[in-house]
Specification:
This protein has two helices and 22 strands. It has a five-stranded mixed beta sheet, with no helix packed on it. By secondary structure, the protein is an alpha+beta fold. The protein folds into three domains: 2-104; 117-260, no CATH class; 270-396, Jelly Rolls, CATH 2.60.120. Helices cover 22% and strands 32% of the residues. Helix 1 crosses helix 2.
Length: 398
């Protein structure tokens, strides 16, 4: 019974300090429950049950708090995983989009020579006059166009067109030459003829390109006002019949014809000459009288001058051999009056020495080349050929 009394006291004390929060302590007394009345014993049992209920409630609250903390941690971890997945998807999607965008941007432009709209309207011809005037400002221009007349290819006029032609009041003509094929796409001005002024209307510029087959394509734009219309030159119908080895030419921009292109024949130009004797002091032009090679007959042995027969790249060489007098000796290569290269020797001791110089340059047809003896002394004989001059055509140009 003593043990039971102590246990009941401990439980009551725990409940008193843990549940009620009462900090007033009473004097500890050991007592025997069997010695107490029944009402006191029941009160002690009731307090013990209340203490057990209090401990159970506290444990339940702690368990709920721990469960809530676990749920919150799991949700945060799940949310972070979802955010990471979305971020990775966004990055991959943007990279893929950039890749496709860069591929699309890097695609080559469409060649207008193979992607154009046929513009076959008879009223546009330079010899056509209509009652109802047309205006290209009302047209919806888009892309490139090729001019035709009854199914035959032609091009815009390059000269002033009389008023009221081409089915309009002020005909539009190309104020500039058509480009060559190697020029690619070019921009040209367009003028409209009105009141004796060939360029009374300065319309917006257009783009032009020449294509294989001697035809042109145009990127037309809206004219500045009405009534203006683009012309198709009826005189250039012949240009559509020119072959690949022919070009369409005209002197007055009215009458056109197909002309065979001149083939560039490769010319062979080589020469080599020598002076079999001695030179001293200043000699304006060395006359190399002994000519060993003269392919193309461009070197004149009577004057010692080489005259370029064609335009191209040439290479020359010239040499000298000094005497035993110890003086310096200079030979100069002269092209069109300009001294461009020197062959120099200078030996102080009583001996001889030779010198050879080369020079490469671009010459136009008719250029004059020779060698001058500026100072010193040079010697040679028929066998040694130490005073020489020669050259060759390396590459011919158009």
């Amino acid at each position: 019974m003593v043990v039971l009394a102590v246990a009941v006291f401990v439980m009551l004390s725990s409940c008193a300090f843990g549940c009620s929060g009462n900090t007033n302590s009473s004097e500890l007394k050991l007592w025997n429950i069997d010695d107490q009345p029944l009402a006191v014993q029941l009160a002690a049992v009731y307090k013990e049950l209340e203490s057990l209920r209090c401990e159970q409630t506290t444990a339940q609250q702690q368990q709920n708090a721990l469960h809530q903390m676990l749920i919150t941690t799991h949700e945060k971890k799940r949310t972070k995983e979802v955010e990471t997945t979305l971020l990775d998807y966004r990055i991959n999607h943007e990279e893929e989009h950039n890749l496709w965008s860069s591929e699309e941007d890097s695609k080559p432009l469409v060649d207008p020579c193979y992607h154009y709209t046929v513009l076959d309207q008879a009223w546009r011809a330079t010899n056509t006059t209509t009652k109802y005037k047309m205006c290209d400002r009302h047209a919806k221009w888009k892309g490139w166009y090729r001019l035709f007349y009854n199914g035959k290819s032609l091009q815009m006029p390059e000269r002033c067109v009389p008023v009221n032609k081409c089915g309009t009041h002020a005909p539009l003509w190309l104020a500039g030459p058509h480009p060559k094929r190697r020029q690619g796409v070019v921009t040209r001005r367009v003028c409209g003829h009105w009141k004796k002024n060939c360029c009374a209307f300065k319309s917006t510029p257009i783009k032009v390109k020449k294509c294989r087959g001697n035809y042109f394509v145009y990127q037309f734009t809206k004219p500045t006002s009405c009534y203006l219309a683009y012309c198709a030159d009826i005189n250039t119908l012949v240009c559509g019949r020119c072959r690949r080895n022919q070009s369409c030419v005209s002197r007055d921009k009215i009458n056109w014809r197909c002309k065979r292109k001149r083939r560039l024949l490769s010319r062979k130009i080589h020469f080599f000459a020598s002076y079999p004797g001695q030179l001293s002091g200043k000699v304006n032009k060395i006359r190399y009288s002994k000519v060993l090679v003269n392919v193309g007959r461009a070197f004149n042995k009577r004057t010692g001058v080489f005259k370029a027969p064609v335009k191209g790249v040439y290479q020359f060489f010239f040499s000298t051999h000094t005497g035993r007098n110890g003086r310096k000796t200079d030979l100069w290569l002269v092209i069109n009056g300009y001294w461009v290269a020197v062959s120099h020797t200078h030996v102080s001791s009583p001996s001889t020495v030779g010198s050879l110089s080369t020079y490469m340059t671009f010459l136009r047809r008719g250029a004059l080349v020779f060698v001058t003896h500026n100072c010193g002394s040079s010697w040679a004989n028929a066998a040694s050929m130490t005073i020489t001059f020669g050259g060759s055509l390396l590459a011919q140009r158009k």
